[in-house]
Design goal:
The complex is a heterodimer of chains A (about 290) and B (about 170). By secondary structure, chain A is of the alpha+beta class. The radius of gyration of chain A is 19 Å and the shape is globular. Chain B has 2 domains: about 70 residues, Roll (Ubiquitin-like (UB roll)); about 80 residues, [2Fe-2S]-binding domain (DNA polymerase, domain 1), CATH 1.10.150.120. Chain B is built from 6 helices and 5 strands, in the order ββαβββααααα. In chain B, strand 3 and strand 4 form a beta hairpin. In chain B, helix 3 packs across helix 6. The longest helix of chain B is centred in the last third of the chain and has 19 residues. Classes of the chains: A alpha+beta (about 290), B alpha+beta (about 170). Chains A and B meet through strand 1, helix 2, strand 3 and helix 6 of A and strand 4 and helix 5 of B. The structure holds flavin-adenine dinucleotide and FE2/S2 (inorganic) cluster (2 copies). The site of flavin-adenine dinucleotide has 28 residues of chain A, from strand 2, helix 2, helix 7, helix 8 and strand 10.
């Protein structure tokens, strides 16, 4: 399967991106890692006319701490870079844990966090992590920067709050001392997109403190399960069972190639138990 | 907008300058423009791994990289790795363990295995069979059932670690 005929232009800095985009017209797409865009072209699911290669734009690179102690991860950070970065391991270790669940090494070497958020696959790991950690997406356009909470950024199936002339510049994770976050998923084969997954953040202190369970692969975007969260916060022996039951009200999973709503709900209940137990185990191990 | 792009890159140590169609992926570039047919295409959308090559020192899906984006890049293919002798022990082990049958997946499997082995050498560890399986999980083989491939990689990992110590 071959891509349709394409134009290709290479941007060297941000003004270049905006200029090339304005010239190329509304269908043009930016090319980051290409690990989602190029397959859709091979399937001829899209015909963008022109690709604007942004991978040489230095302003979109790098992982660093910014003024308020937040960790700023540049949009072009590859999954592989995220997985081995020392700052990430200390500040937001769940990002590195998530990388181990994304695709395969050869794909992780090219795919980027910005591309993952912009593509907004409902079964993708990083968007769910961003929602669970209340991360902020930094969008940049000709008019300047906008800061958008991850939960507002992901607006639906493969859709985001990004305007046509905007790019994702970076994602920021604010410091959350003492908070622990785990990620679990169920996939038929290692590296496949998940049938269902969960990111659970809680703490500081006990796993019942401000729990934030976010599910992926069971809706049109990452879903914060608020009813289940309220049950977990009550604590005690019956909390998990109550939270599992409450998921029926939180989730309304559509059928997909893996199975129907009842199947997805069962996976979500199993994942919630695994996530809660691994948070408790992590606490005991300290 | 241009549908053809000039690129200059290094392929297996040789400088190559070409004008490429923008939509041409790296494997078609290698096979059709350069005559390097050791790299294969199976699915051409990222799932089978048959197209694995090295770009700037790391393995990638050749079908998911545009040749046009590779100006200034360093590309290494199975031809280059064979010539340099870097994976001679791995190739011998594949033959001895019968880890290649039809051979369609083999060049990519060797590149992926070499990637794991060099990471293991950096960490000074011999990867477990589980770690080997995990690393090659994105490379499909329709013939061997993988067992012989895991055997071959494990053999070389153990042998290389032994050499490193002595
Ligand atoms: C076989 C296979 C398995 C995979 N499995 C998984 C998996 O299990 N989990 C998972 O999460 N992902 C998976 N992926 C997808 C992978 O993670 C992609 O890398 C990622 O989804 C997109 O990142 P990219 O940099 O490759 O983006 P591209 O493919 O370059 O772009 C994707 C889209 O985002 C836009 N875009 C890219 N960067 C920006 C930016 N900075 N600002 C605005 N728009 C932008 C592009 O225009 C395009 O529309 C898989 C891919 C393959 C081929
Ligand atoms: S041909 Fe590239 S992954 Fe199948
Ligand atoms: S040896 Fe035939 S596909 Fe692997």
């Amino acid at each position: 399967m071959k891509s349709p005929p394409l134009g290709y232009v290479r941007a060297m800095d941000m003004p270049d991106v905006f200029r090339l985009r304005a010239n190329a017209g509304p269908d043009a797409r930016v090319l980051a890692g290409g690990q989602s865009l190029l397959p859709t072209l091979a399937f001829r699911l899209s015909d963008p006319g022109t690709l604007i290669d942004i991978t040489r734009v230095d302003a979109l690179r790098g992982i660093r701490l910014v003024a308020d102690g937040a960790l700023r991860v540049g949009a072009l950070t590859t999954h592989a870079e995220l997985g081995r970065d020392a700052l990430v391991r200390v500040r937001v270790p769940v990002l590195a844990d998530a990388v181990g669940l994304i695709a395969h090494p050869a794909i992780r070497n090219r795919g980027t966090i910005g591309g993952s958020l912009a593509y907004a696959d409902p079964a993708a790991e990083l968007p769910a992590v961003c929602v669970a950690l209340d991360a902020v997406v930094i969008a940049v356009g000709p008019a300047g920067e906008r800061r958008i909470a991850a939960r507002d950024f992901l607006t639906g199936l493969f859709t985001t709050a990004l305007a046509g002339d905007e790019l994702i510049a970076a994602v920021e994770f604010r410091p959350m001392p003492g908070r622990r976050t785990v990620i679990h998923e169920l996939a038929r084969r290692s590296g496949d997109y998940a049938m269902a997954g969960i990111v659970l953040a809680a703490g500081p202190g006990t796993p019942t403190h401000d729990p934030r369970p976010v599910f992926f692969g069971v809706g049109d975007r990452p879903i914060l399960a608020t009813r289940a969260a309220a049950c977990l916060a009550v604590g005690g022996a019956a909390a998990l069972a109550a939270a599992q039951a409450a998921l029926d009200g939180d989730l309304d999973p559509p059928s997909d190639q893996h199975g129907g709503p009842a199947f997805k709900r069962q996976l979500a209940r199993v994942l919630l138990a695994r996530a809660v137990n691994s948070l408790i185990d992590a606490r005991d191990a300290r | 907008m241009s549908t053809s792009v000039d690129v200059t890159l290094s392929v297996n140590g040789e400088r190559v300058a070409r004008r490429v169609e923008a939509r041409r992926h790296l494997v078609d570039f290698l096979r059709l423009d350069l005559g390097l047919t050791g790299t294969h295409t199976g699915c051409e959308h990222g799932v089978c791994g048959a197209c694995t090559v090295r770009v700037d020192g790391v393995i990638v899906r050749g079908c998911l990289v545009l040749a046009a984006s590779l100006d200034g890049a360093t590309v290494e293919t199975i031809e280059g790795l064979t010539e340099s002798g870097e994976i001679a022990d791995l190739q011998t082990a594949f033959v001895e363990r019968n880890a290649a049958q039809c051979g369609f997946c083999t060049p990519a499997m060797l590149l992926t295995a070499a990637d794991l082995l060099s990471a293991a050498a950096r960490d000074g560890a011999v990867p477990s069979r589980e770690a080997i399986r995990e690393h090659i999980a994105g490379n499909y083989c329709r013939c061997t059932g993988y067992h012989a491939i895991v055997d071959a990689i494990e053999t070389v990992a153990t042998a290389r670690a032994g050499k490193g110590r002595s």
